[in-house]
Amino acid sequence: MANNHTKPAAAFRAIMGLMYLFPLPARFQAELDAVLAGRPGVRLDRSATDFSGRHGIGLYMIQRHFWKMEIIINPRTYTYMGLLVIAVKAHTEYGRHVREGQIQSWNAILSSGIVKKAGQLP
Description:
- The protein has helices at 8-21, 26-37, and strands at residues 43-49, 55-63, 67-73, 80-87, 91-93, 96-98, 103-108.
- It is built from two helices and seven strands; from the N terminus they run ααβββββββ.
- The longest helix is centred in the N-terminal third of the chain and has 14 residues, at 8-21.
């Protein structure tokens, strides 16, 4: 994020990547949520739903004029629940037609924990 002070969309994607790829302490996740909420262009969605159907709060940006990229957080703990990337306009991208409302990515973190070795479940 150090190089993204003037690029809110890049900062948003960097934080989304951190939350999606790495297990982060709850307090650090809450601090990242606060950073996102203060970035220009970041909006709040109080009716966000993750892939498993749980309701949360969404922090989102419209990126490249076509994609709504949303980070879904738990309204009580402010921890990452999942993400949603959905087309807000029909368009052609890389030679393929994308419909309005088409989902590019959607997930949910159902549980997490520290394990002793790779492949082990928490």
